[in-house]
Amino acid sequence: MDNYYYVTKQCIPNAYSIIKVTSFIWKEYINLTKNYSYLRYEERDVYMEKICVIGLGYIGLPTAVMLADNGWQVMGVDIAEDVVNKLNRGEIHVGEPDLHLLAQKLLEEKKIIVRVVPEPADVFIIAVPTPKTTINTCDMNCVELAVKDILPCLKQGNLIIVESTVPPWTCENIIKPFLEDRGFKVGTDIFLAHCPERVLPGRIMQEIIENDRIIGGCTPVCAAKAAEIYQTFIKGEIIITDAETAEMAKLTENTFRDVNIALANEMVKICNRLGINALKVLDIANNHPRVNLHMPGPGVGGHCLAIDPYFIVEKAPFTANLISTAREINSDMPAYIITKVRDLIGFSPGLKIAVLGVSYKGNVSDVRESPALEIIAGLKKIGYEVAVYDPLVEMDEVERSIHNTIQGTDLLLILSDHDEFKYLDGEMIGKLMRSPIVFDTRNIWDAGLNQHIKLYNLGNIYDCKYSI
Ligand SMILES: NC(=O)c1ccc[n+]([C@@H]2O[C@H](COP(=O)([O-])OP(=O)(O)OC[C@H]3O[C@@H](n4cnc5c(N)ncnc54)[C@H](O)[C@@H]3O)[C@@H](O)[C@H]2O)c1
Fold first, then answer.
1. Is 250 a catalytic residue?
2. Which of 8, 25, 46, 414 is the most exposed place for a label (fewest CB within 10 A)?
């Protein structure tokens, strides 16, 4: 399908940006936005000025900060009182580089005010969690509650943007009826769009500005109105489409990555059976100009990749076979790692394992769906003594000293690729451990000159029967 480009004036005077419009709604979009621009231009910067962001977590807080930093009057709303109280004290609970100082400044200047209950505004952005249920469907409770909470605040002309990741047709079939039951006509007197977030945790403050943004309107005017908001702080391209395509595109992006990782993980299992180093195989295969395999690892975690593919499976359970299988492969990796630990050191009472890393990926504090949690629990269940260290994660069982964690252990198991772990001192490890065996599931560490350490990763693990 061809894409077209349309230059539009933003609500910030003198600023222009390019909007990419998929062709099937192109004509309608141009006509409607022309009228809209003509009618509203003079008053536009006073027409929409107050934005209410619902849900102040990893996505909502950076979004609120970006909007406030770009001239919008922002009200942040979170159902969790402790989140609201912390923010009102200037304490930033989201551990994301470059967020703290800016958020603190904007809170201090009252450019963001934080509340537990929403108040009337011009625009409402919903960024609440969409976890999975126990039967692997999307748990829509938070989204539905957020929509119900804003209903009493809504007035004609309001724009509602859903940033939460949701299954296809959510805006049309679930959220729109709430608004229309209230007497509003979506696309005429109230506007609804899905604008999924595509940022990478650890780089959210950069990517929220630089990434291209999908804007899926329930109608073209809904999309045009939502595009106006994002144009005020986004440098990337704005891609206009309908709501259900936007919902499905976001899920497809994360599913692509989950399936890709599943292929790499399956290659690890196959190569280990065949006595071939999987990491070398993947490295060489990636040398091909059209191959881009992701890295294998101890499993897939986080609030996105480990969950979003299920939202597609939920809508097409008998068709989404590849996606379901990929999820199974990745969900099975923690069990595979535990089996390999047993192969490595066997089991006898008193064997001690030091686990480095609890978060689901490197340099973030997020432990949601982290495979490390399952691996730690599984190792303890077998009867190993397990000590855990993670410099970024605050949990009761996480040690604050790496030395104490490693001291007297029989296996060092690296589960998160934090930068700190890339530069571990081999000499220190050799001295502190009872038997110096390292299983680096992220392939980030090199024992250097220390010849006494037995180092395993997902490439050479086939060679590991009972090292002690
Ligand atoms: N974290 C990511 O990297 C990422 C990336 C892309 C998309 N997303 C999507 O963005 C959405 C939000 O994710 P997150 O990581 O920011 O979640 P989060 O858990 O970090 O934050 C969500 C916040 O919403 C609050 N909340 C829950 N229900 C509420 C309600 N009814 N009213 C007001 N506040 C409410 C919670 O207290 C919490 O503070 C999810 O759908 C997620 O899939 C996340």
1. yes
2. 46
